[in-house]
Every structure is written in structure tokens, then in C-alpha cells.
């Protein structure tokens, strides 16, 4: 795994962010914290990947929208949502759409179907990409720090930690068991209930209006 990260980590970040990959950039930030990669290169490759990917979807929307909608019919519903956002928050949306889960590829595509100029989209999208790469990549880096500290604390107190978990689990089980024994009806009442349900079903089936 270390060999793969050292030799193909930046390539994986570039490809992953090209195809809507916030997760890969977060993992790149964690790898940078652990010393496998350099954080500034993680951010740079993530930024380049997302810029190229989003510009591709923009120009697909501008030149080949009909073909793409045939290939991806589920996008039609998302494009309706994206169009509503574009009408209300066009400039702001171009800057922040990467944070909208499920719409990151759809919004550039939908923008390509509008009169928004290519130069306007490219410039605003690039600004948003730089901010996004810094926030997400840096978030992964600091998350790696927090994760390492949490693991160290768990290792230090793992016996007490698992004892507490086991105790909580036992208490929950006892509460559920106690409630089940308190609310469980006696066998006779269970039979009466079952017979009542069966009779109700039979009576409903015999009614002429039940066939309507």
C-alpha cells in the first residue's frame, strides 16, 4: 500500500477529483499528514483534476446535451433542481457547487445549457476549485491528526473503553428484555387476539363490498 501511495498517489487524486471525488482528496490529505505525500501537491493535483472534469461537463452540456441526457436519463430530474438554483444564485452557485452532494457534475452540465459564457464559468469555477482543494485537502490533513490522536487515546484506554461499551450493551439488553416480559400477553390472550384477527379477515372477505 505504501508503494502504491508513493508512486501513484498524486495520479489517483487527479483521476478521482476529475470524476467527482471528494473522498479521494480527503484521503490524500490524510496521506499527507502521515508523510506519504506532500500537502501542497495533493491540493494542486486535486485542483487541476476538478477544474478539468467540471469544464468537460460544462462543454458537454453546451455541445452534446441531448446525447448525454439520452445516456443519463436520471439527470433530467437533477437538472430541473440545478436550473432552479442557477436562476436564483448563478454567480454564488458556480463558486460553491462542488459542496452540493449529487449535483457536482450536473450543475456544470446544466450551466453549459444556459447562456452563461464559457469565460465566466471557467474563471469563477477555477476560483471555486482553488478554495475547494484547500478546504477539502486541508480538512483531510487535520482529520488525519485528529484520527491519530483518537487512535492513541483508544489504545491507551482500550480496556476501559471496551468495558464501558460492554456495560452499556448489557444495560440496554436488560432494559429491552424487561420490557418484553412486561408487555408480553399470556398465551390465552395471544390466542384470543389471533382468533379475533382471523375472524375479522373472514368477515371482511364475506362482505360484498370487500371486492370493490
Question: What descriptive keywords fit this protein?
Answer:
mainly alpha
Short structural description:
This protein is mainly alpha-helical and about 210 residues long. It is about 85% helix and about 0% strand.
Order of helices and strands: HHHHHHHHH
Distance between the termini: 65 Å
Can you tell me the number of structural domains? 1
What's the alpha carbon Rg, rounded to whole Å?
28 Å
Task: Write up this protein.
This protein has 212 residues and is an all-alpha fold. The chain has one domain (2-155). It is built from nine helices and no strands. It has helices at residues 2-18, 22-33, 39-63, 65-71, 75-96, 106-112, 118-156, 158-183, 187-206.
Describe how the helices and strands are arranged.
Elements: H1 2-18, H2 22-33, H3 39-63, H4 65-71, H5 75-96, H6 106-112, H7 118-156, H8 158-183, H9 187-206
Helix pairs in contact: 1-2, 1-3, 2-3, 2-7, 3-6, 3-7, 5-6, 5-7
